[in-house]
């Protein structure tokens, strides 16, 4: 039911290299609002991308990240299910610690072409988004909290993985489910009926499926994503977070790529509406 769902739109900076995801997240939030029958709660506003190192990006984004964390905390305290349309993956630095505090039983299922398990000590790019999963796991101190347990961290679809990240996967910091014919079934076995919070970085999809900054071959199809969503919707869906969708020329309203993405996520959206 609409009154049981809170839709949060993180509209501001979050380590952006360009401005396109700030636009794309707005398109996604509007379409999700129509689907869910709720008005988005907008946090922050689009500002020119800084395209600089992680520390400067984090400092610039911190006020908006903290406001998004507060909005999520308010929703969870009220017993509402959060759905977030975020500009970039780095928003999870603020959201996942809140989620872990309220729902320490929930598994974070992180769909992403990248592991996002770098730390400030070993990142080679300085990209804030590459530190987005490691912060909530307590591998470095973002100042926004931690608390996500390794047993509750599942990475799906990662295929562009740096050596330090690979070592962390091999050390069972997270569980990796790879892209393949049996991805949905493998994911179901790993989650094993536990409650889930689903994070989707749109670059988990095959390049060109929807507009994204990073394009890593060997990704999921929309049907692959929908099958995974259907498996996860078989249990409790604690919340959904979608990021890294960029804008692109499209005459439709909403753009066709937004509609296609929402259709792939439909099993999860239906679940949070129950």
Automatic annotation (TrEMBL):
GO terms for molecular function: arginase activity; manganese ion binding. Pfam families: Arginase. The keyword Kinase does not apply. InterPro entries: Ureohydrolase, Ureohydrolase_dom_sf. The keyword Manganese applies. SUPFAM superfamilies: Arginase/deacetylase. Keywords: Hydrolase, Manganese, Metal-binding. PROSITE patterns: ARGINASE_2. One of its GO terms (cellular component) is cytosol. Belongs to the arginase family. This is Arginase family protein.
